Amino acid sequence: MTNIDVRRSLVKFLLEGKLQMIREEWWMFESLQGLFNTLFGDITKTFITLFSIGILVCGLLAAFGGEENQPRFKKGLITCVTGLVAFLLAKQVVDYFQTNLGG
């Protein structure tokens, strides 16, 4: 073997090692992405449910509660509506940013 053959085989060995490492990193990235998608979906559903219950409770207490607590429940109602809208639109906002600003 000449020096050129040794260098070629060394480069080939290094490239194959790099490709294997890239494949392993890509698999790890895809599994993490799946995990984040699952967690994000579960968190979204959970908070949509919580904010919906909050709207119901704050709305009823603002309507039928005492005069001294109505402003607090109205603020709570506004917070719950804002949170519900944010979580309902979260996926569309993320998709918009990924498609239009992702590059």
Query: Stretches where pLDDT falls below 50 for ≥5 residues?
Result: none
Number of strands: 0
Number of domains: 1
Largest sheet: none
Portion of residues within helices: over 70%
What percentage of amino acids are in beta strands? under 5%
Annotation field: number of helices: 2
Instruction: State the distance separating the first and last CA atoms.
Output: 47 Å
Computed structural class: mainly alpha
Broad shape: rod-shaped
Residue-averaged pLDDT, rounded? 80
Gyration radius over CA: 27 Å
Give the H and E element order: HH
Topology, pairings included?
Elements: H1 3-64, H2 70-101
Search tags:
single chain, 103 residues, mainly alpha, 2 helices
Describe this structure in words.
The chain is an all-alpha fold and 103 residues long. The chain contains 2 helices and no strands. Helices cover 91% and strands 0% of the residues. The chain has one domain. The two termini are 47 Å apart. The mean pLDDT is 80.
Describe the structure in brief.
The protein has one domain. It is mostly helical and 103 residues long.
